Amino acid sequence: MSTFRSILSRAARGALAGLLAAFTALAVAELVAGLVRPAAGPVTVVGGAVIDRTPAAVKDFAIRTFGENDKTVLQLGILAILAVIAVGLGIFALSYRRIGAAGVLLFGIVGSAAALSRPDSTGIGDALPSVVGALAGAAVLYVLASKAVPATAPAVAEGQEGTEGWNRRGFLAAAGATAVVATSAGALGRFFTGRQGQGAVASRNSLVLPAPASPAPAVPAGVQLKVAGISPFTTPNADFYRVDTALTVPKVDAGTWRLRIHGKGVARPVTYTLDELLARPLIERDITLTCVSNEVGGPYIGTARWLGVPLAGLLKEVGVRPPSRGGTADQLVARSVDGMTLGSPVEDVLDGRDAMLAVGMNGEALPFDHGFPVRMLVPGLYGYVSACKWITDIELTTFDAYDPYWVKRKWARKAPIKTQARIDTPKPFARPAAGTVKIAGVAWAQRRGITRVQIRVDDGPWQDADLARQAGIDTWRQWSYPWKATPGGHTITVRATDGTGTVQTEQRTRTIPDGASGWHSVFVTIP
After folding, report:
1. Half-sphere exposure of 315 toward its Cβ, with a 13 Å CA cutoff?
2. How many helices (H) and strands (E) are present in the chain, helices listed first?
3. pLDDT tens for residues 396-422?
């Protein structure tokens, strides 16, 4: 029993030493990142590298399972793995201090390599947080390991306490001091990180959006049905879905932001400031955006009133023509400040739809989560080929010459939004009372519009739902159906018909490679 307690005591000391070393490394790295560049923090860069190397099917699973919390789950997973490794290194360091410390340094090398490999890396300085943090963590592990074991292993008589000879007081004092210093370093790092974003926050707060030269018409009466549980026609900014790969939301100072347009067919490359864009005639439009990761019946869709600069006008001014008129570029590659790349068909951008560089969302400057100061959007295309947030560069090229981020991961090059309908109410497995039950939801087919929605209960005939007024072909459309519900379990199914007369397909497909398809259905029980 004494020997067992001795082993447990030794393992506990080693585990604590390893965890404190890892905590110190991350805290010091956060402090250095706050001084250098917050996006270069080790958890952020390693997480970004993991996202980049994760198969598309796994990414899709993460979004389906965890929704907008997928990045939080990833970060927690990274920290959990680091904790397990830190415990192992700590126990190992009790016998081999130098090798244990070297193991911590190895993680610094991994973090540095990840930082320098990021598409938004600004140079060798991005490696500093991981390097300095690893050095601090290695030093802590070496010191704590030396305090946790005796300088020379004394003979322990049978029956004696196995912890004799180790510097209990020195270890606990060193561990406590380490925890205090590391916590202070982490807090100071968060303070500096916050200060770096203050300029961006101030620039957004002071931004006054000009009135649009082409305002959106008032939302027509009748587009919003008075049915409890149905999605509002206009999605509030706070509720608008967010799906991207950014572990930390970029905070860009509007005063220093620039947009460069260049590439094939561009007669003269040009760079714009935000003020120069805002001085141009702006358009205001109600547009529904949809993420390609949206499963049948999924939540990754929303409608907002967008304010922005017509993208076609900017491109035409620098000489860009669509391929159908002799243009040499058929792909527009948009780049974000964090290195993300999205590719849009030039033909679609220039075909007369309201493609824009948006600066406003629902009457205010873009929220940081949604791309402040400027994002791109092209109605009718899934977001991964059109809705570049935090945009800073537009290159005209060809689909043969370049594959953007998602295309490299086996998603389709071109992705027009598919016709879909969703049941918002009743919810799956709901238990509404018998009698008239309002079935309601939304349907969308951007660039085509919705002309019909039909409901089927169990294996009964398709029945036409009542349609709300359609605000435009680029927005979703609400619908409802009064169902005479009878007791028992029932499956409710919905399908839509778009403006071309095409009925939504029943064929069920996953989101990869170009968006989900199939009919949405819910099962309810009438008591």
Report:
1. 31
2. 10, 18
3. 999 999 999 999 989 999 999 999 999
Q: Say yes or no to pLDDT of 391 above 80.
A: yes
Quick one: which of 427, 416, 497, 514 has its CA closest to 455? 497
Distances in whole angstroms, Cα of residue 357 to Cα of each of 237, 262, 343, 404, 426: 18, 16, 15, 19, 37
Q: What is the pTM of this model?
A: 0.86
Tell me how far apart the alpha carbons of residues 124 and 113 are, in angstroms, rounded to a whole number.
10
How far, in whole angstroms, is CA 200 from its chain's centroid? 20
Cα 395–399–403 angle (5° rounding)?
80
Comparing CA positions, the residue from 222, 226, 396, 362 lying closest to residue 289 is 362
Q: Contact 50/78 with Cβ under 8 angstroms?
A: yes
Cis check: omega of the bond before 310, within 30 degrees of 0 = no
Residue 156 pLDDT > 90: no
d(CA 288, CA 512): 21
Encoded tokens for 136? 């601090």
Q: How far is CA 294 from CA 46, 64, 68, 420, in A?
A: 26, 8, 12, 10
pLDDT per residue over 67-76, tens digit each?
778 878 888 8
Cα 254 to Cα 249: distance, rounded to the nearest angstrom: 15
Cα–Cα distance for residue pair 222/156, rounded to 1 Å: 86
- The distance from CA 226 to its chain's CA centroid, rounded to whole angstroms, is 33
pLDDT in tens, 336-370: 999 999 999 999 999 999 999 999 999 999 999 99
Would you say the C-alpha torsion 342, 347, 348, 350 has a positive or negative sign?
A: positive
Cβ atoms of 361 and 304 within 8 Å: the answer is: yes
Question: Which is nearest to 282 in space by CA: 380, 351, 215?
Answer: 215
